[in-house]
Specification:
Elements (H helix, E strand, L loop, with lengths): L15 E2 L4 E2 L14 H24 L1 H8 L3 H29 L1 H21 L3 H29 L5 H30 L5 H21 L13 H21 L4 H30 L14 H31 L4 H26 L4 H21 L7 H26 L8 H38 L9 H34 L11
Antiparallel strand pairs: 1-2
Helix pairs in contact: 1-4, 1-5, 1-6, 1-7, 3-4, 3-5, 3-8, 3-14, 4-5, 4-7, 5-14, 6-7, 6-11, 6-13, 8-9, 8-14, 10-11, 10-13, 10-14, 10-15, 11-13, 12-13, 12-15, 14-15
Length: 518
């Protein structure tokens, strides 16, 4: 439980705006509803965040039921899930800016409405278009929830100290909890007479609870003038991020028509980025507000922490892509067993909350982040050694728990560091920028690592089928396939470890914690 400090007891924070060199009081520090506690307000925000993230993992867990009941193909499901990520990536920065302009509580309430609508529509879906629409609404909800949740965190717990450290640890823990409960709830509903549809309906009911809690306990931050919002910049940025997310996803499909579509989408991305840059330069010359404040990346702490966490996202996809295949086809683990093993990663992330807070009391953010980032590639390399027939599942689970703890600690510290110099009035858009980059980096990593896995596993399987191996028995053929999958998984995780090491290299340049919070 977060420690409580009343509004009257808190000294006003004095953030430093390094963009213009002035020191000014924060207009929103500790903003919450009269009589409410910051832990109560933040708890409802965390509920909204957990629901928004677990929504995708629930859908992922009920894929067999979706195929059976809705008559969907694998390509149909791929399209629906890609639309979810594209919608989230495309509109995350826009929703962050709208939160800073219109009010973060208002946008969070909009996000919960989108989430409820998306969950209900996904639950009552009767065909591909209806399920597709539900996924798009859920993606928009995620795009609105993450940046404004981070903005509220940065505002409610503006002062450095145990409260703020605990709040960032709980943020990482909420993400880990979503990774755990999504597959378990979805899988349990699909495997029983309850029906997979009630996994979505139950989420919608909890979404109503989150909306009521946010509306009654969280006060609104001061609003800005809406007239000068960068509409063209918002549209071009959405087109850039959305087309890039679609291109990366389709490009990894391996089919000629998908590759051609992906190439065309990359062209759209390049054109949209060029147009976006031109619009932003023109607005800056005219001293008008931009959709993504250019000064954000002038802040060294924001720039380095954001890029480091993005490389973390690329590395994360390595074991999440390869491990289920090895568990299922090499180690012979059933579907429920695979889900339980993978849930160990989320369980570790949940444990990272108190771990991050405890470490922050003894070491500075930069040191904690570096130690945690150093552990990630080492744990991935350790996981490679476990990908064999004789591996006990408990050992794999233990490594995943440790990885989840290290991931959560590193993520919590990097997000905290990223806000060192960000003016509080830009809190939500800063959260949108870093969350969008992490999402796009994860999609790019999935494309890269899918190609690595397919290439290495395919080559290994081909080598097993050459004439010199013509004496292989059917059982040996099965063994050769298992070997090919293991080889591909090991190569994939090794590349993921190398990419994660880049996150550590970037973190070595992180600045020291300033004495005055920005």
């Amino acid at each position: 439980m977060l420690a409580i400090t009343s509004v009257r007891q808190r000294a006003p924070t004095v953030p430093r705006d390094l963009h213009n060199g002035r020191v000014h009081p924060s207009p929103t520090a500790g903003h919450r509803a009269p009589g409410s506690r910051p832990s109560t307000s933040y708890g409802f925000v965390l509920l909204a965040v957990t629901l928004a993230i677990s929504d995708f993992t629930i859908a992922d867990a009920v894929i067999p039921s979706l195929v059976r009941d809705l008559g969907l193909s694998v390509a149909d499901l791929g399209l629906a899930f890609t639309a979810y990520f594209a919608a989230a990536a495309a509109f995350m920065v826009l929703f962050g800016r709208l939160g800073d302009v219109l009010g973060r509580r208002f946008v969070l309430l909009v996000s919960t409405a989108l989430f409820i609508a998306g969950s209900v529509l996904s639950g009552i879906a009767w065909d591909l278009p209806s399920f597709f629409a539900g996924r798009v609404l859920s993606g928009l909800a995620l795009a609105a929830t993450l940046p404004n949740g981070l903005g509220v965190l940065n505002t409610l717990f503006a002062q450095r100290g145990p409260q703020r450290e605990r709040a960032f640890g709980l943020w990482a823990a909420a993400i880990g909890l979503a990774a755990v409960i999504g597959p378990l709830v979805g899988g349990a509903a699909a495997a029983t007479a309850i029906s997979w549809r009630w996994a979505f309906f139950g989420s919608a009911l909890l979404g109503v609870l989150a909306a009521v809690g946010i509306a009654t306990t969280l006060a609104e931050n001061p609003r800005k003038r809406l007239a000068d919002i960068d509409v063209w910049g918002a549209l071009l940025l959405a087109a850039s991020a959305g087309s890039l997310a679609l291109a990366v996803d389709l490009g990894g499909g391996g089919y000629d028509d998908q590759v051609r579509t992906a190439v065309g989408l990359f062209g759209v991305t390049i054109a949209a980025v060029a147009a976006f840059a031109a619009v932003q330069r023109r607005r800056i010359r005219r001293r008008r507000e931009t959709i993504a404040p250019p000064h954000l990346f002038r802040y060294r702490s924001f720039r380095l922490a954001t890029f480091s966490s993005a490389f973390m996202s690329i590395g994360d996809t390595g074991f999440q892509l390869a491990l289920p295949l090895v568990l299922g086809f090499v180690l012979g683990v059933g579907q429920l067993g695979v889900g339980v093993v993978l849930a160990c990663y989320g369980a570790g992330a949940v444990l990272s909350g108190p771990a991050a807070a405890a470490l922050a009391r003894r070491l500075d953010d930069r040191t904690v982040a570096r130690y945690a980032l150093a552990a990630l590639p080492l744990l991935l390399l350790g996981l490679i050694a476990l990908l064999s027939w004789e591996t006990p599942l408990a050992a794999v689970g233990a490594v995943l728990v440790a990885y989840g703890v290290a991931w959560g600690v590193a993520y919590a510290r990097l997000v905290n560091i990223s806000y060192y110099e960000v003016p509080e009035q830009d809190s939500a858009v800063a959260g949108g920028v870093q969350s969008a980059l992490r999402l796009l980096a994860g999609a790019l990593g999935a494309g890269i690592l899918t190609a690595v896995f397919s290439g290495v596993a395919g080559r290994s399987a081909l080598d097993a089928a050459v004439p010199s191996h013509s004496r292989l028995t059917p059982s040996a053929d099965t063994s050769a396939l298992a070997t090919a999958l293991s080889t591909g998984a090991q190569a994939t995780i090794a590349v993921a470890a190398a990419i994660t090491a880049v996150a550590l290299i970037i973190a070595l340049r992180l600045p020291e914690q300033p004495t005055v919070r920005s």
